[in-house]
TrEMBL record:
The lineage of its organism: Bacteria, Pseudomonadati, Bacteroidota, Flavobacteriia, Flavobacteriales. This is BioF2-like acetyltransferase domain-containing protein. Signal peptide: none annotated. One of its GO terms (biological process) is regulation of cell shape. GO terms for molecular function: aminoacyltransferase activity. InterPro entries: Acyl_CoA_acyltransferase, BioF2-like_GNAT_dom, FEMABX, PG_Glycine_Bridge_Synth.
Length: 338
């Protein structure tokens, strides 16, 4: 017997369900859905006994209409699942698709967009046949299931030399939790956002950082690089069972040429080896190729590349076209929000 429930964000069941998935990340948690958006969020839960598909969504009203659309939080989201075997998996996926379409129709949902998670391969099986899955750039992941020596052997040759040079400069990496070190990191993060001309939504409040590092839904750790006891760079890493994720980071202008972030990522790998995590996911760049400096920086640590994709689904083509009729054609989705 198959069932479908809508779980609201204030329900403790949200995280109970998420943590039963075969693989999940902090982007799927109730806490992140509370802090990443001002819109209502729901966890759509399709299940039979201990098997399930759970899809977290953000619900956005379409201004001036009775309609809404669905999107995902920023980062790597998409459906979570747990299956016993291929037969029950296929049956539950079929139930998910038919029930999801009914849910969208009954709730005046016009379109659906979700960023998918590069480390959760079953998402494409679940969503296949509903709209379009578009492959974008590659991301970089360090395999934490192999030993430390083998991990380091995968480093770009120049990276090994650069790490040794950083250590000779007496730059050290520490896991920190004092307000002094956190405030220093926040200042460096803001400085970094200024340097790259980041959009305003990247300028999180100080409270955001403190709450994030002390939330109850997942582990968050701040690693900083210091020189003569001065914080010169830092990064926040999250940990949810099998996935360790590289999140927010920054380096002070004075030390930007030294790239101490390389030492931080090397230390994060060692921290991950001591945990239950199977992957340290560094994410991607802008274009996901060696022409992209951010991707080139990350790919020096690993050639274990993963595919980042997005899901686009037009539920009601007639209304979608009406809403988009005055928009110039582009790849932006949904077009009526361009």
């Amino acid at each position: 017997m198959f069932n479908f429930e809508v779980i609201q964000n204030n329900s403790p069941r949200w995280n109970e369900i998420v943590k039963q998935a075969k693989v999940f990340d902090f982007h799927h948690t109730s806490y992140f859905h509370q802090i990443d958006t001002d819109f209502d969020t729901q966890l759509l839960y399709f299940y039979s006994d201990n098997e399930f598909i759970a899809l977290p969504v953000v619900i956005r009203p379409i201004e001036g209409t009775k309609y809404v659309d669905l999107t995902s939080v920023y980062g790597y989201s998409g459906p979570l699942s747990y299956f016993n075997n291929d037969v029950s998996k296929n049956e539950l996926i079929h139930f998910f698709k038919t029930s999801f379409i009914d849910y969208c129709t009954q709730n005046n949902i016009i379109s659906v967009f979700s960023r998918l998670h590069p480390l959760i391969s079953e998402q494409k099986d679940i969503l296949g046949g509903l709209g379009e899955i578009l492959d974008l750039n590659k991301t970089v992941s360090i395999d934490l299931t192999i030993d430390q020596v083998e991990q380091r052997q995968a480093y770009r040759k120049s990276l090994k030399s650069e790490l040794n040079q950083l250590r000779r400069k007496e730059i050290i990496v520490e896991s920190v939790s004092t307000s002094h070190d956190i405030d220093a990191f926040i200042a460096i993060y803001y400085e970094t956002m200024d340097r790259v001309s980041a959009s305003p939504n990247y300028y999180f409040s100080k409270k955001y950082f403190y709450d994030f590092l002390n939330n109850d839904d997942f582990q968050a750790r701040l690693l900083v690089a210091k020189n003569n006891d001065k914080v010169i760079a830092g990064a926040i890493f999250t940990h949810t069972d099998k996935i360790m994720q590289y999140h927010l980071a920054g380096t002070t202008e004075e030390y930007i040429k030294d790239t101490p972030m390389k030492l931080i990522l090397d230390e994060a790998r060692l921290v991950g080896n001591e945990s239950s995590a199977e992957s340290l996911h560094l994410g991607g760049g802008v274009g996901g190729s060696d022409d992209d400096s951010l991707f080139k920086f990350k790919s020096a640590f690993s050639k274990n590349f993963k595919q980042f994709s997005v899901w686009k689904y037009i539920v009601n083509t007639e209304v979608y076209d009406q809403l988009s009729k005055d928009k110039e054609h582009s790849n932006f989705f949904p077009l009526y929000r361009s």
